[in-house]
Amino acid sequence: MAGNKTFTMIKPDAVEANNIGPILAMINKAGFKILAMKYMRLTKEQAGMFYEVHKERPFYGELTEYMSSGPIVAAILTKDNAVTDYRKLIGATDPTKAEDGTIRKLFAKSIAANAVHGSDSDENADIESNFFFSSLERF
Ligand code: IDP
Ligand code: MG
What we know:
By secondary structure, the chain is of the alpha+beta class. The protein contains seven helices and four strands; from the N terminus they run E-H-H-E-H-H-E-H-H-E-H. The protein has helices spanning about 10-15, 20-30, 45-50, 60-65, 80-90, 105, 120-130, and strands at about 5-10, 35-40, 70-80, 115-120. Strands 2-3-1-4 form a four-stranded antiparallel sheet. Helix 3 (about 45-50) packs across helix 4 (about 60-65). The structure holds inosine-5'-diphosphate and magnesium ion (MG). Inosine-5'-diphosphate binds near residues 54, 59 and 63. Inosine-5'-diphosphate binds near residues 54, 111, 112 and 114.
C-alpha cells in the first residue's frame, strides 16, 4: 500500500525569487498537510550527503554547490498517496518538459535550479525526512 508521507525542499532559486508563499499555497491547495517544516541553509557537505545517490552523476558537483548556495525550506508533507501525488504536482525534473500548471513549470529556472525537491519512493521519503527532522519536530 502506498504511504501517506513525502519529503520536499523549496530550493534556493525559488526562495531567492520570493516563491515560498506561492509554492506552499499550491501544496496546501493540492490537499497536502504540513507535518514538519524548517528554514535553513545546507553546507556543501550536507547537500552532498542528501544527494549521495547521485555521487557518480556528472552534475553532482554543480548540484551540491547550488543546493548550498542559499537557504531552503525543508518539509514533510502528508496526504494519501503522497509520493506519487506530489511528483505529479511538481512535474518533470527538466522544467521545459514539465506539464502546465506544475510547480516546476511555473517556478523552476533550469534543470538544476528546479524550484523543489520531491521524494521518489516511500522508502526515500522516510530516509529524507529522518535526515532533516527528529520526532520532536513532527506534528
Ligand atoms: P528529481 O529531483 O526530479 O527526482 P533527480 O534525477 O533525482 O530528479 O535529480 C536530482 C536533482 O539533481 C534534480 O532535481 C536537479 O536539481 C538536479 N539535476 C538532475 N539532472 C540534472 C542535470 O542534467 N543537470 C544539472 N542538474 C541536474
Ligand atoms: Mg530524485
